[in-house]
């Protein structure tokens, strides 16, 4: 192994993948639009600027691939990047997709078949929704912190939320050379919860009342768009909630256990750890 390139290297999953690999002595280069503080192996990388691709992939043989955010049809940019990566000698790519994204001829669903077609060893990770959304700068966390409310269009649909550390552990193992399992690599936590149930767990752990409000897909699209997200991508995100309402995410898998040898962390344990960390820094709430 030469060097692993981690795109989205300062993001929620990318920085965890980089840390996982570096802790095991792997040479890692992180890539994003803005330099990572204290990371001398970081390169400036912009999906909108193909001129940044060559420096990012130079000497790289494995890639953790996070597609451009807020782009509802990113295949063109990713295709050009994959061409550059293969020309530089990349043989294995681990693509971060999502459980809500299915293979399709266009849109986000075009990326998995594109990667499989271009890369000799391709793994497509399809994680469920992140537990981190409840404690960071995601709209769910902001709603908890500022209003004691979670607003979605999911109704009573359930999601097996997953800890991003578990996603990073799976990605890291595959980038270290673990055999790529056959079939779909859907990553979930150990239990599927509705947002009503998740709100109840947040309330119990933090001691602050939190409630879930379900709105229409149209209302959610407008709210997401009002936050600065382009309309097309806002609609895609809102329609994912609609699919959850229909039961698309009410499942659990053993993929984390199968690849890493340990069970995924539960939502309650994640929140307890997050709340403890926040409390240690004198923060008022888990979110």
Automatic annotation (TrEMBL):
Residues 8-108 form the NAD(P)-binding domain. Transmembrane segments: none annotated. Pfam families: NAD_binding_10 (PF13460). Signal peptide: none annotated. This is Uncharacterized protein YbjT (DUF2867 family). It comes from Streptomyces pseudovenezuelae.
């Amino acid at each position: 192994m030469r060097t692993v390139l981690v795109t989205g290297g300062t993001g929620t999953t990318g920085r965890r993948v980089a840390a996982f690999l570096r802790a095991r002595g792997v040479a890692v280069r992180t890539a994003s639009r803005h330099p990572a503080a204290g990371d001398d192996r970081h390169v400036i990388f912009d999906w909108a600027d193909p001129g940044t691709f060559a420096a990012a992939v130079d000497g790289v043989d494995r890639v953790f691939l996070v597609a451009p955010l807020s782009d509802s049809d990113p295949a063109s940019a990713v295709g050009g990047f994959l061409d550059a990566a293969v020309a530089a000698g990349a043989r294995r790519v681990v693509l971060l997709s999502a459980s809500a994204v299915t293979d399709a001829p266009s849109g986000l669903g075009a990326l998995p078949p594109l990667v499989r077609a271009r890369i000799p060893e391709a793994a497509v990770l399809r994680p469920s929704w992140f537990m981190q959304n409840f404690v960071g700068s995601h709209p769910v966390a902001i709603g908890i912190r500022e209003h004691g409310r979670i607003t979605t269009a999911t109704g009573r649909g359930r999601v097996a939320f997953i800890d991003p550390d578990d996603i990073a552990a799976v990605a890291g193992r595959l980038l270290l050379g673990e055999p790529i399992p056959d079939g779909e690599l859907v990553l979930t936590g150990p239990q599927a919860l509705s947002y009503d149930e998740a709100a109840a767990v947040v309330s119990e752990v933090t001691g602050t009342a939190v409630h879930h409000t379900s709105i229409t897909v149209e209302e959610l699209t407008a709210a997401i768009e009002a936050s600065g997200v382009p309309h097309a991508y806002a609609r895609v995100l809102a329609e994912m909630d609609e699919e959850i309402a229909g039961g698309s995410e009410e499942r659990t898998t053993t993929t984390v256990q199968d690849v890493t040898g340990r069970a995924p962390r539960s939502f309650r344990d994640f929140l307890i750890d997050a709340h403890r960390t926040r409390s240690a820094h004198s923060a008022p709430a888990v979110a």
